[in-house]
């Protein structure tokens, strides 16, 4: 369904754009229908940039992003099937419009011919799917609703479309623990309906809770990916191990993963990209990028 192939993103920075920063480097992975893929990595590792490229908010510098075999081109048809939800739900709403406006805009753009009573029935059904009471949310301004209610409204909006892929970027990080579990369970329901979900998070436990497969990013590159149980249960890359064992301690800063002298990647004479250590479980060089290719 969604396929990223060797995708790189460079941003021009500096006063006259004379320098560039590589936010995402040669990233390839897929999301298939009915699957949650979690994209994890520390802050600045490129997760949101990948989400934004998939949503057409930033163009890729090189590589390709395809959806159902066709280049992912942002536009009305694309957004019928691919939607994104972000960390701060307030930012997705125009504060001067009531919540109803979100649904009215979908109707105007995609379903102008649907009669009002039928549309009201559909909106009520989608709100009920996300366990919102229309009477409690419609007719209210964004500031009159909680973060959890706004995230659910955005999921309901996505459900009104013929959505196939949801990019969920840190959508639970502003929610309290119980609301977070509710929203995660909603994502699990979307998965059960056959939707694909790219779940972007830096919270490993949440990724573990939901995702069939996990992609671990470090400084814009994939260092490990595979079935979540493998990546979490038998991590091969020192950065993944570091992430999994990282427990915050007061007054102690995060120690980056230590480069290693030997690694599976080099032992097997890999020369680029990711090594398939076992079927479907891929790992990058564990020397953390600071090494030339090694020949057997
Ligand atoms: N518009 C931009 N212009 C210049 N650099 C950018 C831009 N957007 C992102 N970056 C840089 O790209 C890198 C990746 O940023 P990104 O937001 O994708 O990371 P992230 O993993 O989502 O981090 P976080 O978890 O903190 O949101 C960072 O170094 C960031 O500073």
TrEMBL record:
Which CDD domains does the protein's record reference? Answer: ABC_NikE_OppD_transporters (cd03257)
Gene Ontology terms: biological process: peptide transport
User: What UniProt keywords are attached to this protein's entry?
Assistant: ATP-binding, Nucleotide-binding, Transport
Q: What are the protein's GO molecular function terms?
A: ATP binding; ATP hydrolysis activity
InterPro entries on file: AAA+_ATPase, ABC_transporter-like_ATP-bd, ABC_transporter-like_CS, Oligopep_ABC_C, P-loop_NTPase
What PROSITE patterns does the annotation carry?
ABC_TRANSPORTER_1, ABC_TRANSPORTER_2
An example Pfam family from this entry, by short name, is oligo_HPY
Q: What is this protein called?
A: ATP-binding cassette domain-containing protein
Species: Nonomuraea phyllanthi
